[in-house]
Automatic annotation (TrEMBL):
It catalyses: adenine + H2O + H(+) = hypoxanthine + NH4(+). The lineage of its organism: Bacteria, Bacillati, Bacillota, Bacilli, Bacillales. It comes from Fredinandcohnia quinoae. Its EC number is 3.5.4.2. This is adenine deaminase. Residues 78-362 form the Amidohydrolase-related domain. InterPro entries: Adenine_deam_C (IPR026912), Amidohydro-rel (IPR006680), Metal-dep_hydrolase_composite (IPR011059), Metal_Hydrolase (IPR032466). The keyword Hydrolase applies. Pfam families: Adenine_deam_C, Amidohydro_1. PANTHER family: ADENINE DEAMINASE YERA-RELATED, N-ACETYLGLUCOSAMINE-6-PHOSPHATE DEACETYLASE. It comes from the Bacteria. Residues 418-570 form the Adenine deaminase C-terminal domain.
Length: 580
């Protein structure tokens, strides 16, 4: 059992040394390689020996034994370490397997993933079994340990118990606690959360913040309490404040916060020209956002905005590895590291023509090598939703005196409802719609109005939400019921209905939250849904994130949660959910 706690067993380590001694042959020899060395911050020339999944040697010597060794002449190419995405939400319609496969093709070979869906939807035993299975993917998969559900749920104390959190923190695949969406509780004196942060520190693991708009004093307090990194900078001044307090600072480019180009311009105006404390992230965007790439695209933007080329690559590789204390395995092309290597046409073109991940070609000469085998989802309770209950017209009663007004894709404010919501259909001349969150087991519901989502969406149902419960939105109650019925038939998904017919649907067969489909197919589906919603009045940046964050209490001001309508700023339930 102890052998499983180490990356390489003693026998494998002896084999690695035997390659150096000429007793065994490397698996792959990369000859005449021009590679990026992060220690010297220079492009150097060397031969690189690889045995199985490990870099055995980097230098001027050639191996004496080449039996069954693949020899690759790298003349004319530039080699950089596989990119690391440090902040992945791998359940945004896609699943961790499909996202990892897609990411590998553009050179992102290490992913550090949110565990929230696993914590909410699986038992701890199932979740840890899932993590073990993920270790066998060609890419390297690491995980977070959440300290709260990011909303108000009924059984938070059981899911986020002290025992569960400690077990997650102690897991070998977990490299950080957080993200700390619940940081106000920490500042208000939550000593159990502070204890978990202390435990993470004791185990040599990091704490990821979530501090949008935090003042200089707040950032200082949270650093004192254990935060190490934050990805919520929206301006150059935000970046400066975090650097001055000692944070590793993530520069973000995502669907709802595409801030990277502006941030880079502003930090350069502020005179910031050192990049060792920066990392890059896309912050778990929906599928279509990734058409232009993942971390490779962020490196490209950084270079275009004047970041020195070597620093741009380091922000996506060695800086991340050092921050997470995994530089002995990742982030550089040096002896002993996992063989994650990207092969580039030029130094300024970060999208690779070939990719080695754990010593295997996942992409070679622009061709995907099909190293990702089908994942056994049924082993982990990610099945089609089985729903043996129905929503009825009696459930669709809307009499709450105020509702949720969308300020943007994710920020919701309270507003007074002045229209008569007692009818079965609302006028298409205004942008107020019915909104219901209903328990996936059918035990409770909460009904209100939403203003700003759209003015011509007749019926809409989604099993994709922050809590895994069901969202119903619309102007016409019959079309809302039809959307729910079709969502049930799909076994989970997103359904748009109109005039008593299904207009569009995205099946989400994996627990109602994720699709089996590959990223390319999901991109097309998401874009089509986006077009249809915009034609019906949706005007903000990202409808997928709107669905996700309707229940998320880490954002102001008001949320619809399993416990009821929740006032985030005052931390109280204004109207409790109703038992059915």
């Amino acid at each position: 059992m102890l052998d499983q706690r180490y990356r390489w067993k003693n026998k494998q380590l002896r084999e690695h040394v035997a390659v150096i001694d000429g007793k065994k042959s490397p698996s792959i020899l990369l000859k005449n390689a021009t590679y990026l060395n992060p220690i010297f911050k220079k492009w150097l020339k060397a031969h690189i020996w690889i045995y199985a999944d490990r870099i055995i040697y980097v230098g001027q010597q050639l191996p004496s034994k080449l039996t069954n060794c693949e020899i690759v002449d790298c003349d004319g190419q530039f080699l950089v370490p596989g990119y690391i995405e440090p902040h992945v939400h791998p359940f945004q319609l896609y699943n961790p397997h499909s996202f990892a496969q897609y990411a590998s093709q553009s050179g992102t070979t290490t992913l550090i993933n949110d565990n929230l869906v696993l914590a909410l939807q699986l038992t701890k035993k199932k979740a840890f079994s899932f993590l073990r299975e993920m270790k066998d993917l060609p890419v390297s998969m690491y995980w977070w340990c959440r300290f709260d559900p990011q909303t108000e749920i009924h059984n938070e104390e059981q899911i986020f118990s002290n025992g569960n959190i400690k077990n997650w923190l102690e897991h070998d695949s977990v490299v950080q606690g957080g993200e700390l969406t619940c940081w106000p509780k920490l500042l208000d004196g939550d000593d159990l959360m502070l204890h978990w942060i202390q435990e993470a520190k004791r185990l040599g693991k990091k704490i990821e913040g979530h501090f949008p708009g935090a003042s200089e004093k707040t950032l200082a307090k949270l650093m004192l309490l254990g935060a190490d990194c934050d990805h919520e900078s929206m301006t150059g001044k935000d970046v400066m404040n975090r650097l001055l307090q000692g944070y590793t600072t993530s520069l973000r480019y995502s669907s709802i916060r595409p801030d990277l180009p502006k941030i880079l311009d502003e930090i350069h105006e502020l005179g910031i020209d050192q990049y060792d404390q920066f990392v890059l992230t896309t912050d778990g965007s929906p599928p279509a956002f990734y058409e232009e790439g993942i971390i490779d695209n962020l490196i490209k933007i950084s270079i275009e905005k004047g970041v020195p080329v070597i620093d741009a690559y380091n922000m996506a590789t060695i800086n991340v590895a050092k921050h997470y204390n995994i530089a002995h395995l990742h982030g550089s092309i040096t002896t002993g590291r996992i063989a994650n290597i990207n092969f580039l046409r030029s130094k300024e073109e970060p999208t690779p023509v070939s990719v080695l991940a754990k010593g295997k070609w996942v992409k070679k000469d622009e061709v995907e090598m099909n190293e990702f085998v089908e994942f056994p989802w049924n082993n982990y309770s990610f099945n089609k939703l089985s729903c043996d209950w129905n929503v009825t017209m009696d459930d669709l009663q809307f009499s709450m005196p105020f509702g949720m007004k969308m300020e943007n894709a994710v920020i919701m404010k309270p507003y007074s409802v002045t229209i008569d919501a007692s009818y079965d259909q609302l006028s298409m001349k205004h942008d107020e719609s019915y909104l219901m969150l209903i328990d996936r087991q059918g035990k409770w519901r909460i009904n209100t109005m939403i203003k700003g989502f759209a003015n011509r969406v007749s019926g809409f149902a989604s099993s994709y939400s922050n809590t895994g419960d069901f969202l119903l939105i619309g102007k016409n109650k019959q079309d809302m019921l039809l959307a729910f019925k079709r969502m049930k038939e799909l076994g989970g998904g997103i359904v748009l209905t109109e005039k008593d017919r299904v207009l569009y649907e995205i099946p989400l067969e994996l627990g109602g939250h994720m699709s089996h489909k590959q990223m390319g197919d999901l991109m097309k589906e998401e874009k089509e849904l986006d077009i249809l919603l915009r034609e019906r009045g949706y005007k903000f940046s990202d409808p997928i994130y709107t669905l996700l964050f309707l229940s998320s209490t880490h954002l102001p001001y008001i949320r619809i949660t399993p416990q009821g309508i929740y006032d985030v700023m005052n931390k109280i339930v204004l109207f409790p959910s109703i038992m059915r």
